[in-house]
What we know:
Elements: H1 2-11, H2 33-39, E1 40-46, E2 54-55, H3 66-70, E3 73-81, E4 87-90, H4 91-95, E5 106-108, E6 114-124, E7 129-134, E8 155-160, E9 168-179, E10 187-191, E11 203-205, E12 211-218, E13 225-229, H5 230-235, E14 240-251, E15 254-267, H6 272-297, H7 310-314, E16 324-328, E17 334-337, E18 339-340, E19 344-345, E20 351-357, E21 360-366, H8 373-377, H9 380-387, E22 394-397, E23 400-406, E24 412-417, E25 423-431, E26 436-445, E27 448-457, H10 461-472, E28 475-476, E29 479-482, H11 483-490, E30 504-508, E31 512-516, E32 520-524, E33 536-546, E34 549-560, E35 568-575, H12 583-593, E36 604-605, E37 609-615, E38 626-635, H13 640-651, E39 655-656
Parallel strand pairs: 6-14
Antiparallel strand pairs: 1-3, 1-5, 2-23, 3-4, 4-7, 5-6, 6-7, 8-9, 8-11, 9-10, 10-13, 11-12, 12-13, 14-15, 16-17, 16-28, 18-20, 19-20, 20-21, 21-27, 22-23, 24-25, 25-26, 26-27, 29-33, 30-31, 31-32, 32-39, 33-34, 34-35, 35-38, 36-37, 37-38
Helix pairs in contact: 6-10
Amino acid sequence: MRASVFALLALVACASWGIAGPAVAATLNPAVxxxxxxxxxxxxxxxxxxxxxxxxxxLPLDLxxxxxxxxxxxxxxxxxxxxxxxxxxAGHVLLAGVxxxxxxxxLRDASGHVYAIGKIxxxxxxxxxxxxxxxxxxxxxxxxxxxxxxxLNQVVYAVGNALGTGVVIRDGLxxxxxxxxxxxxxxxxxxxxAASPGNSGGPLLDKDGKVIGVVLMKSAxxxxxxxxxxxxxxxxxxxxxxxDKRLPYGFDLFDSMLSNVLKAQFALPLxxxxxxxxxxxxxxxxxxxxxxxxxxxxxxxxxxxxEGSSELLHGMPSMGDFPTLITRNxxxxxxxxxxxxxxxxxxxxGYLTPGMANHTFLFHLRKPDSISAKKLYxxxxxxMDTLLKTGFVKRxxxxxxxxxxxxxxxxxxxxxxxxxxxxxxxRVWPMPYVNARVITFALPVxxxxxxMMRILPAGYVHDYMINLQAxxxxxxVTYDGTLAQWKDFLGNTALLxxxxxxxxxxxxxxxxxxxxxxxxxxxxxxxxxxxDPQSLLTLxxxxxxxxxxxxxxxxxxxxxxxxSDHYWVNVARNVMPSPDLDDSYQSEWKKLLQHRHPYDGVxxxxxxxxxxxxxxxxxxxxxxxxxxxxxxxxxxxxxxxxMKTKLDLLMKxxxxxxx
Length: 659
């Protein structure tokens, strides 16, 4: 098909080629068509030899166009020859192969022959071009000639691999020049000849077939396209890769951004693997510096610092089991963000809840009862196969979307410890068919997992990884499960957060439950409430100011007799509100201080429930500004005396030790 396009063009006069465009007298000289054909190439990358993914059914590849399903290569752009084994394409076309999952970029001619890249000889990130050699160039060394000083308003021809289906020629006018956006160091050429995805890196020709520019990008708002003048390529320094470009940098949890110029260079020539490693190091180092600088810039108002943090520091912790992210809203207040979707039911009482917070996928996995915590935490394939049951990854084949059911084994499996000493299992999976990767940060919790996930272009692992590491510090997770799940979870000591070094949970079914930490301790027997494997325990973690240092610790302990019975006990930490919080916080604190209703030990009747609550007596030496409350909640209507007896049982051995 590629050869036939050029053969057809060579057989007829330009006036009859169907080259649509402005009414101009100049037309492309048919005599140059063979040279254009020989000197213009597709840029291709080999399709992966093996697909590690599993699908819900065999892929209906017969629905793809013939060329797409039979081609062993992905066509990603265009390149052209300048002679003497020098070739040019767009910088971003070459960069598509850096740290990718397809084969290295190569050139393919109109006859289907593929030529490996030899050495990268010139590169500019900002001007978006690369000059390179081929390891074994095609015979004849066909080349395009250049015109480094083209005139405005002449007819031009964009030659390129439009939409990845072969090289075509389309005409228009070279209409104007416009300064490049950063500081006007050069001018882009603007032209009206059509350009499509795949044209990037192709030559912009005049009527004599001379190269006047490199086609690079489309205008966002009008039917004009951009080319880099060929003079900028020719005059660029030899044997040097130059990066001098303003790059915006943001963080997913707040709106503030940086916009700094990346300035770096390294020596050429290098083969593609060496070039990729050098380029990746420059970009990774820049990303490291930008993230560090952005967080440092925001440090005075970055949670848990600044007035915008007060509501989370002084309010009661969320007790929901769906993970959320602490994000800063437009008013400067840090709050919990994350919306969940419908549950996916799993066998043996398991379920999976997916959701989102900004650009991060979130999941809560309640593991099936038949799977041990050790088995789940040690089997990343099981985790990802379970997440895929939500259907968030589907492969498009023509009109169909086929669900991916397994990504196979991850290529990376490590631990990351966040600021609060929580240990995240970090896994990376390849998705070769789209040249992408999946990163998961999975935090073991008593009933299964809290998971953060991103899907990213294959070459951006480091940038996404350091962002997720930073985001992990802002993940809000409640620890919830049945007592059976808690026993199983607590046995995996290497994965327990640092806070559990000072938390001791005793579970003796049918006899006694106990909880002890550096802040409080209590215990009770079944006389107060049933204690069996299906009883529930939730620890609501929050952020405590300990002598000027914010720590992550339990702020709420809640137990239920079972998931179906409304018999609950609770011990909660309450903090004196800061002056910047509104009257509702101040009023509630006064009620606590004065032991006013509902904190006075008098029953509260609700919808077929009865509740009794009171403030725990504060022993001498306890940190001022902190009060604990205890309550008991029961189904149905119960008299004051009965409820007080239950509350007294809870408070009998309840001790506050917070200093």
